Amino acid sequence: MKRIYVNEEWCLGCHLCEFNCAFANSGLTDMVKALKGKNINPRIRVEGDGKITYAVNCRHCDDAICVKSCIAGAIKRTADAVVIDKDKCVGCYTCILVCPYGAVQAASDHAVQKCELCMNNASGAPACVLGCPNRAIVYEERE
Predict the structure, then answer these.
(1) For position 30, which CATH number holds?
(2) Residue 123's pLDDT band (boundaries 50, 70, 90)?
(3) Strand 75-77 to strand 3-6: parallel, antiparallel, or no bridges (unpaired)?
(4) Are residue 8 and residue 39 in the same domain, yes or no?
(5) If you count Cβ atoms within 10 Å of the first and of the last residue's Cβ in the chain, which end, N or C, has fewer?
(6) How many CB atoms are located within 10 Å of the residue 123 CB?
(7) Secondary structure in 3-state letters for 83-129
(8) Which of 17, 100, 92, 2 lies closest to 54, judged by CA?
(9) What is the mean pLDDT of residues 79-104?
(10) Do 71 and 102 share a domain, yes or no?
(11) Which is it for strands 75-77 and 82-84: parallel, antiparallel or unpaired?
(12) Average confidence score pLDDT of the chain
């Protein structure tokens, strides 16, 4: 199965992946209208200490503990990804607590959010991958 991988040594810490993610999940077609003057809420985060930067994103675990811990059954595993049904989410944040990668985050609507590989977007590939100028983020199959 294809997943997002980050080559930390190539990451510039530019945060373009965050902006592209927030725009792709905004539901708008104009990036300026979607992001200008707003607090962006991306599903991927760039972190680091200045010397090394890296992206924190969902690993779409085969045996995802967030799926097992969801008391509302809002998180499920599909053939391609681990996804969240925001209509079922009760905002207990148990999934945030149990994710070993810190990939599940509180959303602005009191539900949770995480990378869903842009499955609901028309881009064809994750927006963070398409927007990375240094190709530090890739979407591929690995053993």
Answers:
(1) 3.30.70
(2) low
(3) unpaired
(4) yes
(5) C
(6) 13
(7) EECCCCCCCCCHHHHHCCCCCCEECCCCCEECCCCCCCCCCCCCHHH
(8) 17
(9) 95
(10) yes
(11) antiparallel
(12) 91
Q: How far apart are CA 17 and CA 40, in angstroms?
A: 12
Q: What's the confidence (pLDDT) of residue 122?
A: 64
Give the domain range for residue 19: 1-57+115-143
Place of tokens 């924190």: 56
Which residues are within 8 A (CB) of 55 and not within 5 positions of it... i.e. 6 or more apart?
6, 11, 17, 44, 45, 46, 47, 128, 136, 137
Cα angle 25, 67, 40 (rounded to 5 degrees) comes to: 25
Q: Confirm if 95 and 75 have CB atoms less than 8 A apart.
A: yes
Do 80 and 42 fall into the same domain? no
Residue identified by tokens 């080559």 is: 7
Per residue in 19-77, pLDDT (tens digit) is 999 999 888 999 999 999 988 889 999 998 878 888 899 999 999 999 999 999 999 99
Residue type at 65?
I
Q: What percent of the chain has pLDDT over 70?
A: 97
d(CA 137, CA 11) in angstroms, rounded, equals 8
Answer yes or no: do 15 and 51 share one domain. yes
CB atoms within 10 A of CB 86: 14
